[in-house]
Write a structure and sequence with these properties.
The chain is of the alpha/beta class. It has helices at residues 10-18, 25-35, 47-59, 74-82, 96-109, 122-127, 147-155, 183-197, and strands spanning 64-68, 88-93, 115-119, 135-140, 158-167, 201-206, 212-217. It is globular.
Length: 224
């Protein structure tokens, strides 16, 4: 089978990035302010990824969402935009400085009422949730060694046909570099292999930004 991908040049990537229907001036302003933080701004999701997250949230009719790793709030704003007026997004983060930027832009965008931000270790937050809490969609973009732990905590609360999205699964190509053996890289490699073998879900990895894996929870009794 011939290779069915194209290497993106900067010009071609710009073409991809601008060909999305979302034109949110609040998101644009947030991206600009985040860029001023310097190299750490790379933690923000790409615009086309944010647009995809909004579309997926709307497409599955999500009403309850969870995010692990909020940073300055771009991805949360994208998910919140896809939720109905009475939808709810739980955001888990540990950094008050970065999330204070997020709060300002959520207010500007008119989605703050949909979002609950809990500061503290995300695993503690997730494990403390009542047993009957259920999510339709989740996004994981935090410390890589805990990705699998976040997955298990969210999956048990995810409704059938719900989605979990994992960011940075290509890790700037380091997942293929055998010489790279740090904890984060090893954790991502292990997660990537685990997800495609987990019969509770089906998964696809997409070469969007730094790699995005989308996992769907199977229906009870659905053949794997």
């Amino acid at each position: 089978m011939p290779d069915k991908f194209i290497s993106l040049t900067p010009d071609l990537y710009e073409y991809v990035a601008v060909h999305r229907s979302e034109r949110d001036p609040v998101l644009a302003a947030l991206a600009k302010e985040t860029e001023q933080l310097g190299p750490i701004s790379l933690m923000q999701v790409a615009p086309e990824q944010g647009a995809l997250m909004t579309i997926l949230t709307r497409a599955i009719g999500a009403r309850a969402a969870v995010e692990v790793g909020t940073f300055t709030g771009y991805s949360a704003l994208c998910v919140a935009r896809g939720l109905p007026e009475d939808g709810r997004l739980l955001c888990c983060d540990v950094n008050d400085d970065w999330t204070s930027i997020a709060r300002r832009y959520w207010e500007k965008a008119g989605v703050a009422k949909k979002i609950e931000l809990r500061l503290g270790p995300a695993l503690d937050t997730l494990r403390a949730l009542p047993a009957d809490v259920q999510f339709d969609i989740g996004f994981v973009d935090a410390d890589k060694p805990n990705y699998h732990n976040y997955y298990e905590e969210i999956l048990k609360r995810l409704r059938p046909n719900g989605l979990i999205l994992f960011d940075n699964v290509l890790w700037m190509g380091q997942v293929l570099d055998a010489a790279t053996t740090d904890e984060s890289t090893r954790a991502l490699r292990e997660l990537n292999e685990f997800l495609i073998a987990d019969r509770r879900v089906e998964a696809v990895m997409l070469p969007i930004s730094d790699g995005l894996t989308i996992v769907r929870k199977r229906e009870p009794g659905e053949p794997a």
